[in-house]
C-alpha cells in the first residue's frame, strides 16, 4: 500500500431542486438534478495506531476536527459496520477549500471521501449498495457525493438515478461568505407540494438541450434563502448578465450561487467580473465532472 492515499471531495451543485412533499418525519421529499465540479476539498490518509484528523486550507477556521466532524463520523460508521475488514487507525488530513454550510455539500463530500478511503484500504471489497446505505445514514447528500457524477436524486437524496450521458460544461461559483442554516430555509418554504422535475431529454449530450430543460425547472429553496440572505438574489442577477451564462441559480439551501457556461474562458471571465464587483466574496471556477465521475 502507498504511504498516503488521497481522495478528492468535489463540490456538489443542485442544478435544479424541486421540493415535492412535506413528510410525516418533518423532512421534505426532493427531486434534484445534481452535478459535481472539479473543485473541492482534499482528504489524505496514512496508517497510524488510532484515528485522528487535522484540518488545513482556507476554510479550516472554526471547523472542529473532533468526533462530530463528518470525516470522523464516516470513519467511525464504516468501522462499526465492517469491523473485521476495516484498516487499523488512520491519520487523516483535510484541506478545506470549500466554504462551510454553503449549499455545495462540502461536509457531505468529505464524508463520502472518507468512506471511499476506508473502502480502498479495507481487507476485502465492501458491496457498493451497502456503502450507499451507510452513506445515507450520514447525511442526505452523502450517497450522491459517493458517486460524484451527474445524477437525479429523489426522496431526501437516497434514491439515485445516475445519468448515462451529460454535456461538457463549466461552472462559476460565488459565495457571499454568509453561512445559511438549512433548517431555517426549509422553515421559510411557503409551498411544499411543487410539481416534480420534467423528464430529461435522452440522450442528453448538448448544452442547449440542458439549457432548455433547466429553464423549466427551479430551486424551490432559492426564494426563502433570499429572504434570509438578500445578497443571494443580487449575485443571481449579476451572474445572469455575464457573457455566455446559460443559467444562474442558487445551489442547495444556499448561499452559494452558480453560473453555467459552455466554455472555460466564459466561466473565468464571469469569475473575474464577480471578483471585481465583490472582492470579499469566495469565487471558484471549474469544469463539471462527467458521467465517469
Ligand atoms: C438542501 C440540500 C439539497 O441537496 O443541500 P445543502 O443545502 O445541505 O447542500 C440537502 O437536502 C440538505 O440535506 P442535509 O444537509 O442532510 O440536511 P440536514 O442538515 O440534515 O437538514 C436540516 C433540516 O432541514 C430540513 N430538511 C432537510 C432536508 C430535507 N430533504 N427536508 C427537510 O425538511 C429538516 O428540518 C432538517 O432537520
Ligand atoms: N468536514 C466538514 N466540512 C464541512 N462541514 C462540516 C464538516 N463536518 C461537519 N460539518 C458540519 O456540517 C454542517 C453542514 O456543512 P456543509 O456540508 O458544508 O453544508 P452544505 O451542504 O450546506 O454545503 C456545517 O454546519 C458543519 O458544522
Kindly provide the radius of gyration, computed on alpha-carbon positions and rounded to a whole number of angstroms.
19 Å
Which molecules other than protein and nucleic acid are bound? 4-diphosphocytidyl-2-C-methyl-D-erythritol 2-phosphate, adenosine-5'-diphosphate
Give the assembly state of these chains.
single chain
First-to-last CA distance: 24 Å
How many beta strands in the DSSP annotation? 10
Can you count the helices?
9
Instruction: Report the CATH topology name of the largest domain.
Output: Ribosomal Protein S5, domain 2
Structural class computed from helices and strand pairing: alpha+beta
Characterize the largest beta sheet: strand count, sense, and whether it forms a barrel.
6 strands, mixed
Can you write the helix and strand succession as a string? Answer: EEEHEHHHEEEHHHHEEHE
Mean of the pLDDT scores? 96
CATH class category label of the largest domain = Alpha Beta
Helix content: 25-40%
If classified by CATH, what would the architecture of the largest domain be? 2-Layer Sandwich
Q: Into how many domains do the coordinates divide?
A: 2
Low-confidence stretches: none
Shape: globular
- How much strand content do the residues show? 25-35%
Amino acid at each position: 500500500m502507498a504511504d498516503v492515499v488521497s481522495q478528492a471531495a468535489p463540490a456538489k451543485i443542485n442544478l435544479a431542486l424541486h421540493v415535492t412533499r412535506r413528510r410525516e418525519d418533518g423532512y421534505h421529499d426532493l427531486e434534484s438534478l445534481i452535478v459535481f465540479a472539479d473543485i473541492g476539498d482534499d482528504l489524505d490518509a496514512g496508517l497510524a495506531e488510532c484515528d485522528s484528523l487535522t484540518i488545513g486550507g482556507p476554510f479550516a477556521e472554526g471547523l472542529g476536527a473532533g468526533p462530530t466532524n463528518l470525516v470522523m463520523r464516516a470513519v467511525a460508521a464504516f468501522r462499526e459496520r465492517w469491523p473485521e475488514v476495516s484498516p487499523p487507525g488512520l491519520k487523516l488530513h483535510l484541506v478545506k477549500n470549500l466554504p462551510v454550510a454553503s449549499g455545495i455539500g462540502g461536509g457531505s463530500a468529505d464524508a463520502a471521501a472518507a468512506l471511499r478511503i476506508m473502502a480502498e484500504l479495507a481487507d476485502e471489497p465492501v458491496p457498493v449498495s451497502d456503502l450507499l446505505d451507510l452513506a445515507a445514514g450520514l447525511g442526505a447528500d452523502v450517497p450522491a457525493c459517493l458517486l460524484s457524477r451527474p445524477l437525479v436524486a429523489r426522496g431526501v437524496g437516497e434514491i439515485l438515478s445516475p445519468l448515462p450521458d451529460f454535456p461538457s460544461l463549466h461552472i462559476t461559483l460565488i459565495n457571499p461568505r454568509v453561512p445559511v442554516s438549512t433548517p431555517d430555509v426549509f422553515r421559510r418554504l411557503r409551498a411544499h407540494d411543487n410539481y416534480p422535475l420534467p423528464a430529461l431529454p435522452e440522450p442528453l449530450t448538448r448544452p442547449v438541450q440542458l439549457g432548455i430543460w433547466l429553464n423549466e425547472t427551479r430551486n424551490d429553496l432559492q426564494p426563502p434563502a433570499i429572504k434570509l440572505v438578500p445578497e443571494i438574489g443580487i449575485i443571481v442577477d449579476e451572474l445572469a448578465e455575464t457573457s455566455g451564462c446559460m443559467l444562474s441559480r442558487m445551489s442547495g439551501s444556499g448561499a452559494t450561487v452558480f453560473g453555467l457556461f459552455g466554455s472555460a474562458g466564459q466561466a473565468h471571465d464571469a469569475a473575474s467580473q464577480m471578483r471585481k464587483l465583490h472582492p470579499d466574496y469566495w469565487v471558484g471556477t471549474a469544469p463539471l465532472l462527467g458521467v465517469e465521475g
